[in-house]
Amino acid sequence: MTTEVFDILIIGAGLSGIGVAASLRRDRPRTTIAILESRAAIGGTWDLFRYPGIRSDSDLYTFAYEFKPWLDKRAIAPASSILDYLKDTIIEYDLSGSIHLDHHVRNASWSTADRHWTVTADTGESSTEFRSRWLFIATGYYDYTAGYTPDLPGVETFGGQVVHPQAWPEDLDPTGRDIVVIGSGATAVTLVPALAPDAAHVTMLQRTPTYILPLPSGDPIADLGKRILGPRRGHAFARWKNLVQNRAVYQLSRRFPQAVRKVIRAITVRSLPAGYPVDVHFNPPYDPWDQRLCLVPDGDLFKAISNGSASVVTDRIATFTPGGIRLESGAELAADIVVTATGLNLLPLGGIRLTVDGRPIDITERVAFRGMLLSGLPNTAFAIGYTTISWTLKIGLVAQHLARLMDEMDTHGFDMVVPELPDGDFPTRPLLDFEAGYIQRAISRLPKQGMAAPWLMPMDYRTDAKTFRHGTIRDRHLRFEPTSDTQRQHPGGKPETAAPSD
Asked: Which of 28, 80, 392, 474 is most buried (CB neighbours < 10 A)?
């Protein structure tokens, strides 16, 4: 067990964990940080997934960190470029010595008497304990051990290979083989054009269509901005431009869904051969942005369909057969390889068992405060990014607000803060208002949100930016506890109070 008590212990060395650590290193350079990562490498999603073509599904000017310019010319970038960016961030902010790989956190226990967390991490055949004043859970939202695969009738009779993208075999060779990709989300629309050049044929088998938008892989306006303004200011300009653009598309989709549906359909018709049955394969039954729009850089999916190397089938699986998949329509798809791009399993807060003063914490009974703290949990923050725009935008704001909160506590002699629900009946709703299947399958295992600020989990970057960067730190729902020295100065044990900010 390490005897050092760190200022903050960050669980997870992916995009969120590294971003929070680098942001704190910038804003609070004297803060002592340890980052525990369960895997043998940094990068999270961008190291775990190895399937062909893996790339971001957001533009990198908003997906990258605000404080570190994105210099690659590709606005939609492959995993390898994102990994390089993360490694550069670690070097630039001197985080290498703070990262502990192969440390799988199982338990975290808070002691009010000691005012710190004790975290137990498995390190192979043994375990190690760390202590810290703050705990930041940056584990992402899904289970890294296995993806989601629905019931596949008759799959045991299939004579080929079944692969989930989350466990892509390094030696899988698609050359000359018939491949069926089950799914219609971001992973499926990435895989199909990536496999098509080598495969005999690739079929995307979908039960329900998805909204798919082509866009250039590069961003000429952002490139011009970087040339004129320089890397840092050019990055800020491109970030602002894309934020405005993404917000406009989302708001138009929510206010005028039928008009946006018509625009997307027109773009799809122009991207595919004349007479293609667009209304069969690219006409979702839900409104735009009820689920995420899928982006295809340079229209690569549509190009693969147009040149005949790939196709889309909208149907349901009746059963697997020795040679492929029989559909409910009676048609049969021949397949040597079936890829189940069927989604993720959620693992709330990394599956860490939390206790406070010996009492187990049921996170489903907790309510998110400002989308970053949880009711009844002292000195604990978590990271869940946006679902309608780039994930990282929220993480950056959370890191900035956390630094402000820690500064406030240092200034006034506090070493503990706990969000507390108001007395009486407190109505709640699910933490995430999003219809994606992977969210709905696990929504009952997540914390909740309230009906009004500060207990909301907002998905509006502009609103969050005002609150997190400039809003009052103190709130009537936050209980601050003084350090022992301050406690003696205030015999009643009452921390300073301020008018509520929300």
From this structure: 392
Cis peptide before 454 (omega within 30 of 0): yes
Residue showing tokens 């607000």 = 401
Q: What is the pLDDT of residues 8-62, one digit of tens each?
A: 999 999 999 999 999 999 999 999 999 999 999 999 999 999 999 999 988 999 9
3-state secondary structure 299-355: CHHHHHHHCCCEEEEECCEEEEECCEEEECCCCEEECCEEEECCCCCECHHHHCEEE
CA 46 to mean position of chain CA atoms: 11
Distance (Å, whole) CA 141 – CA 344: 9
Q: What angle do CA 259, 261, 265 make, to 5 degrees?
A: 120
- Going by C-alpha positions, the residue among 13, 15, 8, 14 that lies closest to residue 34 is 8
What pLDDT is recorded for position 484?
A: 62
Alpha-carbon torsion angle 440, 50, 150, 313, nearest 10: 100
Taking the C-alpha atoms of residue 405 and residue 250, their distance in angstroms, rounded to an integer, is 31
The band of 347, judged by pLDDT with boundaries at 50, 70 and 90, is: confident
Four-residue CA torsion sign, 4, 10, 13, 19: negative
Four-residue CA torsion sign, 210, 216, 220, 223: positive
**For 358, how many CA atoms within 13 A lie in the half-sphere containing its CB?**
1
Q: What is the Cα–Cα distance from 106 to 129, expressed in whole angstroms?
A: 11
Residue type, 216: P
CB–CB of 97/35 below 8 Å? no
Contact 9, 136 (CB under 8 A): yes
